[in-house]
Amino acid sequence: MKSSAIRTHVAPWRWPAVCLACLAVLWRLAPVALAADKDKKEEKKPEPPRVIVALPLASVIGKTNLVRLRGNSLSDVTEVRWTNETPATISFRAASKLDVPRDADARVVGDSQVEVALFVPPEMPSGTNYFIVRSTNGTSAPHALRWVPPGALTDEKEPNGGYEKAQLIASGMTVHGSIREDADVDVFRFEGKAGQWVVAEVQAMRLGAPLDPVLTLHGAGGYVLAQSDDSAGHRDATLRFRLPTDRARYYLSLVDSLNRGGPAYEYLLSVRLE
Question: Exposed site from 32, 137, 256, 264, fewest CB < 10 Å?
Fold first, then answer.
Protein backbone atom coordinates (compact mmCIF):
# COMPACT_ATOMS: atom_id res chain seq x y z
CA MET A 1 0.00 0.00 0.00
CA LYS A 2 1.40 3.29 -1.06
CA SER A 3 1.71 6.08 1.55
CA SER A 4 0.52 9.42 0.44
CA ALA A 5 1.62 12.83 1.82
CA ILE A 6 -1.11 15.14 3.01
CA ARG A 7 -0.83 18.43 1.19
CA THR A 8 -2.69 21.60 1.98
CA HIS A 9 -3.94 23.32 -1.06
CA VAL A 10 -5.40 26.80 -1.21
CA ALA A 11 -7.24 27.66 -4.31
CA PRO A 12 -5.65 30.59 -6.14
CA TRP A 13 -8.89 32.54 -5.98
CA ARG A 14 -8.67 32.51 -2.12
CA TRP A 15 -5.12 33.93 -1.85
CA PRO A 16 -6.19 37.57 -1.49
CA ALA A 17 -8.41 36.68 1.46
CA VAL A 18 -5.60 34.72 3.14
CA CYS A 19 -3.18 37.62 2.65
CA LEU A 20 -5.67 40.06 4.12
CA ALA A 21 -6.12 37.84 7.18
CA CYS A 22 -2.34 37.73 7.69
CA LEU A 23 -2.15 41.50 7.44
CA ALA A 24 -4.91 41.85 10.02
CA VAL A 25 -2.98 39.67 12.48
CA LEU A 26 0.20 41.65 11.90
CA TRP A 27 -1.72 44.90 12.35
CA ARG A 28 -2.98 43.72 15.74
CA LEU A 29 0.47 42.58 16.85
CA ALA A 30 2.31 45.71 15.68
CA PRO A 31 1.29 47.97 18.63
CA VAL A 32 2.37 45.28 21.10
CA ALA A 33 5.78 45.02 19.46
CA LEU A 34 6.15 48.78 19.28
CA ALA A 35 5.15 49.19 22.94
CA ALA A 36 7.69 46.58 24.01
CA ASP A 37 10.38 48.32 21.96
CA LYS A 38 9.38 51.68 23.47
CA ASP A 39 9.60 50.27 27.00
CA LYS A 40 13.11 49.09 26.28
CA LYS A 41 14.09 52.51 25.00
CA GLU A 42 12.49 54.29 27.99
CA GLU A 43 14.38 52.26 30.58
CA LYS A 44 16.35 54.97 32.37
CA LYS A 45 19.87 54.46 33.50
CA PRO A 46 20.56 55.20 37.18
CA GLU A 47 21.32 58.88 37.63
CA PRO A 48 24.58 60.05 39.22
CA PRO A 49 24.34 61.60 42.68
CA ARG A 50 23.21 65.22 42.87
CA VAL A 51 23.63 67.50 45.88
CA ILE A 52 21.02 70.26 46.23
CA VAL A 53 21.93 71.81 49.58
CA ALA A 54 24.25 71.28 52.54
CA LEU A 55 22.49 71.79 55.90
CA PRO A 56 23.19 73.75 57.98
CA LEU A 57 24.16 76.40 55.43
CA ALA A 58 27.23 77.36 57.48
CA SER A 59 29.45 75.47 59.94
CA VAL A 60 31.57 76.74 62.81
CA ILE A 61 35.38 76.75 62.71
CA GLY A 62 37.17 74.80 65.43
CA LYS A 63 34.47 72.18 66.11
CA THR A 64 33.15 69.03 64.49
CA ASN A 65 29.98 69.86 62.59
CA LEU A 66 27.40 67.29 61.53
CA VAL A 67 26.31 68.29 58.02
CA ARG A 68 23.44 66.80 55.99
CA LEU A 69 23.76 66.80 52.23
CA ARG A 70 20.28 66.70 50.67
CA GLY A 71 19.74 65.82 47.04
CA ASN A 72 18.88 63.05 44.61
CA SER A 73 20.37 59.57 44.14
CA LEU A 74 22.40 59.93 47.34
CA SER A 75 21.33 56.77 49.18
CA ASP A 76 24.09 54.73 47.48
CA VAL A 77 26.90 57.24 48.03
CA THR A 78 30.04 55.75 49.55
CA GLU A 79 32.56 58.60 49.33
CA VAL A 80 32.70 62.34 49.99
CA ARG A 81 35.86 64.32 49.34
CA TRP A 82 37.17 67.82 48.69
CA THR A 83 37.97 68.95 45.18
CA ASN A 84 41.33 70.38 46.36
CA GLU A 85 43.91 70.10 49.11
CA THR A 86 42.85 71.63 52.43
CA PRO A 87 43.54 71.03 56.16
CA ALA A 88 39.78 70.92 56.74
CA THR A 89 38.47 67.36 56.95
CA ILE A 90 35.22 65.95 55.65
CA SER A 91 34.30 62.33 56.34
CA PHE A 92 31.40 60.15 55.20
CA ARG A 93 29.10 58.85 57.94
CA ALA A 94 25.84 57.49 56.48
CA ALA A 95 23.52 57.65 53.48
CA SER A 96 19.75 57.22 53.49
CA LYS A 97 16.51 57.89 51.63
CA LEU A 98 14.12 60.69 52.65
CA ASP A 99 10.38 61.15 52.55
CA VAL A 100 9.36 63.87 50.12
CA PRO A 101 6.69 66.18 51.62
CA ARG A 102 3.31 66.11 49.92
CA ASP A 103 3.07 68.44 46.92
CA ALA A 104 6.85 68.98 47.03
CA ASP A 105 9.16 68.45 44.07
CA ALA A 106 11.89 65.91 44.85
CA ARG A 107 14.19 67.73 42.44
CA VAL A 108 13.84 70.84 44.62
CA VAL A 109 13.86 69.49 48.19
CA GLY A 110 15.71 66.19 47.67
CA ASP A 111 14.71 62.56 48.20
CA SER A 112 17.88 61.29 49.90
CA GLN A 113 20.73 62.51 52.04
CA VAL A 114 24.30 61.88 53.14
CA GLU A 115 25.58 62.71 56.62
CA VAL A 116 29.16 63.92 56.90
CA ALA A 117 31.39 65.22 59.68
CA LEU A 118 33.16 68.49 58.92
CA PHE A 119 36.08 69.80 60.97
CA VAL A 120 37.83 73.07 60.17
CA PRO A 121 41.03 73.75 62.19
CA PRO A 122 40.79 76.77 64.56
CA GLU A 123 43.52 78.68 62.72
CA MET A 124 41.61 78.76 59.43
CA PRO A 125 39.74 81.95 58.39
CA SER A 126 36.14 82.11 57.21
CA GLY A 127 35.73 80.59 53.80
CA THR A 128 34.12 78.22 51.37
CA ASN A 129 35.39 74.98 49.91
CA TYR A 130 33.94 72.55 47.40
CA PHE A 131 33.30 68.83 47.66
CA ILE A 132 31.96 66.00 45.49
CA VAL A 133 30.18 62.75 46.35
CA ARG A 134 30.59 59.42 44.56
CA SER A 135 28.53 56.29 44.10
CA THR A 136 28.57 53.36 41.69
CA ASN A 137 26.39 55.50 39.39
CA GLY A 138 28.84 58.36 39.05
CA THR A 139 30.12 61.56 40.63
CA SER A 140 28.22 64.69 41.61
CA ALA A 141 29.00 68.22 40.49
CA PRO A 142 31.07 70.24 43.01
CA HIS A 143 29.04 71.80 45.83
CA ALA A 144 30.01 74.46 48.37
CA LEU A 145 30.50 74.10 52.13
CA ARG A 146 30.84 77.33 54.12
CA TRP A 147 32.36 77.94 57.54
CA VAL A 148 32.46 80.94 59.86
CA PRO A 149 34.37 81.85 63.06
CA PRO A 150 32.92 81.03 66.49
CA GLY A 151 30.64 83.78 67.74
CA ALA A 152 29.74 85.07 64.27
CA LEU A 153 26.77 82.74 63.87
CA THR A 154 23.65 82.54 66.01
CA ASP A 155 20.64 80.26 65.66
CA GLU A 156 17.13 81.49 65.07
CA LYS A 157 14.97 80.97 68.16
CA GLU A 158 11.30 80.13 67.93
CA PRO A 159 8.74 81.48 68.55
CA ASN A 160 9.59 84.67 66.69
CA GLY A 161 6.56 85.07 64.45
CA GLY A 162 5.53 88.60 65.49
CA TYR A 163 6.71 91.96 66.86
CA GLU A 164 6.19 91.01 70.50
CA LYS A 165 8.34 87.88 70.16
CA ALA A 166 10.86 89.24 67.67
CA GLN A 167 14.38 87.91 68.16
CA LEU A 168 17.08 90.47 68.97
CA ILE A 169 19.92 90.61 66.47
CA ALA A 170 23.09 92.69 66.85
CA SER A 171 24.95 94.47 64.07
CA GLY A 172 27.56 92.24 62.48
CA MET A 173 25.80 88.99 63.40
CA THR A 174 24.55 86.28 61.06
CA VAL A 175 21.44 84.28 61.94
CA HIS A 176 21.05 80.70 60.80
CA GLY A 177 17.31 80.05 60.54
CA SER A 178 14.63 78.23 58.62
CA ILE A 179 11.08 78.68 57.41
CA ARG A 180 9.90 75.43 58.92
CA GLU A 181 6.38 75.25 57.52
CA ASP A 182 4.00 76.90 55.08
CA ALA A 183 3.13 80.53 55.97
CA ASP A 184 5.88 80.68 58.62
CA VAL A 185 7.22 84.17 59.42
CA ASP A 186 10.50 84.95 61.22
CA VAL A 187 10.82 88.39 62.81
CA PHE A 188 13.99 90.04 64.17
CA ARG A 189 14.52 93.37 65.92
CA PHE A 190 17.41 95.78 66.28
CA GLU A 191 17.97 99.35 67.44
CA GLY A 192 19.40 102.07 65.25
CA LYS A 193 20.06 105.80 65.05
CA ALA A 194 18.79 108.36 62.59
CA GLY A 195 21.04 108.57 59.55
CA GLN A 196 22.51 105.07 59.95
CA TRP A 197 22.28 102.69 57.03
CA VAL A 198 20.99 99.19 57.73
CA VAL A 199 22.25 96.53 55.35
CA ALA A 200 20.47 93.17 55.60
CA GLU A 201 21.26 90.25 53.33
CA VAL A 202 19.76 86.78 52.99
CA GLN A 203 21.62 83.81 51.54
CA ALA A 204 19.42 80.85 50.70
CA MET A 205 18.89 80.04 47.02
CA ARG A 206 22.52 80.83 46.24
CA LEU A 207 23.48 78.02 48.60
CA GLY A 208 20.95 75.54 47.21
CA ALA A 209 18.04 76.03 49.63
CA PRO A 210 14.57 76.15 47.98
CA LEU A 211 13.58 79.22 50.03
CA ASP A 212 12.78 82.29 47.88
CA PRO A 213 13.14 84.96 50.59
CA VAL A 214 11.29 88.25 50.92
CA LEU A 215 12.79 90.63 53.49
CA THR A 216 10.79 93.57 54.89
CA LEU A 217 11.94 96.40 57.18
CA HIS A 218 9.30 97.74 59.56
CA GLY A 219 9.29 100.80 61.82
CA ALA A 220 8.32 100.74 65.50
CA GLY A 221 4.65 101.17 64.62
CA GLY A 222 4.72 98.22 62.22
CA TYR A 223 4.61 100.31 59.06
CA VAL A 224 6.72 99.20 56.12
CA LEU A 225 9.91 101.19 55.45
CA ALA A 226 11.51 99.04 52.77
CA GLN A 227 11.22 95.63 51.16
CA SER A 228 13.47 93.38 49.07
CA ASP A 229 12.62 90.28 47.07
CA ASP A 230 15.08 89.45 44.29
CA SER A 231 18.50 91.04 43.94
CA ALA A 232 20.63 91.66 40.89
CA GLY A 233 21.88 88.32 39.60
CA HIS A 234 20.08 86.10 42.10
CA ARG A 235 16.77 85.57 43.92
CA ASP A 236 18.01 86.18 47.47
CA ALA A 237 16.96 89.38 49.21
CA THR A 238 19.34 92.28 49.96
CA LEU A 239 18.00 95.39 51.67
CA ARG A 240 19.77 98.71 52.21
CA PHE A 241 17.93 101.59 53.90
CA ARG A 242 18.77 104.80 55.78
CA LEU A 243 17.09 104.83 59.18
CA PRO A 244 14.82 107.85 59.76
CA THR A 245 14.47 107.94 63.56
CA ASP A 246 17.00 108.14 66.38
CA ARG A 247 17.11 105.54 69.16
CA ALA A 248 14.23 103.62 67.64
CA ARG A 249 13.41 99.94 67.43
CA TYR A 250 13.20 98.41 63.97
CA TYR A 251 12.02 95.01 62.76
CA LEU A 252 13.01 92.70 59.92
CA SER A 253 10.52 90.05 58.80
CA LEU A 254 11.49 87.16 56.54
CA VAL A 255 9.07 84.93 54.59
CA ASP A 256 9.06 82.72 51.51
CA SER A 257 7.63 84.49 48.47
CA LEU A 258 5.18 81.61 47.90
CA ASN A 259 4.45 81.12 51.64
CA ARG A 260 6.05 77.69 51.52
CA GLY A 261 8.31 76.07 54.07
CA GLY A 262 9.88 72.76 55.01
CA PRO A 263 12.97 70.94 56.26
CA ALA A 264 15.31 72.37 53.60
CA TYR A 265 14.04 75.98 53.66
CA GLU A 266 17.03 77.33 55.55
CA TYR A 267 18.71 80.73 55.31
CA LEU A 268 21.55 82.90 56.57
CA LEU A 269 20.50 86.43 57.51
CA SER A 270 23.27 88.96 58.13
CA VAL A 271 22.62 92.48 59.47
CA ARG A 272 24.98 95.38 59.89
CA LEU A 273 24.66 99.10 60.62
CA GLU A 274 26.87 101.60 58.82
Answer: 32
Residues 194 and 176 in one domain: yes
Amino acid symbol at 216: T
Domain-terminating residue out of 132, 148, 164: 148
Same domain? 176 vs 249:
yes
**Secondary element (H or E) of residue 53:** strand 50-55
The reported pTM is: 0.79
**What pLDDT shows up at residue 194?**
94
Q: Which secondary structure element, helix H or strand E, spans residue 32, and what is its range?
A: helix 15-42
Residue-wise DSSP of 133-182: EEETTEEPPPEEEEEE-TTSEEE--S--SSSTTPEE--TTEEEEEE--ST
Q: What strand order describes the sheet that includes 238-242?
A: 153-155, 173-178, 266-273, 197-203, 238-242
Q: What is the CATH number of the domain that holds 98?
A: 2.60.40.10
Does a structural domain hold residue 6?
A: no
Q: Which of 97, 118, 148 is the last residue of a domain?
A: 148
Q: Which parts of the chain sit beneath pLDDT 50?
A: 1-6
91-to-24, 95, 167 alpha-carbon distances in Å: 64, 12, 35
Q: What pLDDT was estimated at residue 51? A: 97
User: How does strand 213-218 pair with strand 224-228?
Assistant: antiparallel
Query: At 106, which helix (H) or strand (E)?
Result: helix 106-109
In this prediction, residue 101 carries a pLDDT of 82
Expressed as residue numbers, the domain containing 195 is: 153-273
Question: Is the Cβ–Cβ distance between 88 and 80 less than 8 Å?
Answer: no
Do 144 and 250 lie in a common domain? no
pLDDT value of position 237: 96
